[in-house]
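Today's session is about reading a structure prediction critically. Students often jump straight to the picture, but the first step is always the sequence itself: look for stretches that repeat, for charged clusters, for runs of hydrophobic residues. Only then move on to the predicted structure, which in these notes is written as discrete structure tokens rather than atom positions. Here is the chain we will use throughout the hour.
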Amino acid sequence: MRIGELATRTGVSVRSLRYYEEQGLLSSTRAASGQRHYTDHEVERVAFIQRLYAAGLSSRTIAEVLPCAESPSEENSDAALERMTQERDRLSAHIDDLVRTRDALDGLVAANRAHRATLVAASGQ
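Below is the predicted structure for this chain, in token form.
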């Protein structure tokens, strides 16, 4: 199938599919005219790549995890698990930072409300 059909079947833009190829996440064969051709296997692969992106993984990390699906083995599975665990830990640390930032902002909002209340009280409203 050509790239447009793959895009239609997967719901992924042609531009994204080209990007996946540039990143080494997807491959195609080329016709003499230069047109990309894909097999039905790539439909499943694109769906898998989309799930990995939805989980917050970068294209670089996805490239590191894909061997687990391409060449299943205990070693590849362990490597993928380790990499996904690292990404989860990174996301958890980022969430912790965001919670601290939100809590600091909540403190500033509370201080502003208290200050505003004193201004309203002082003006007699």
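Discussion point for the tutorial: Strands lie at 29-30, 36-37.
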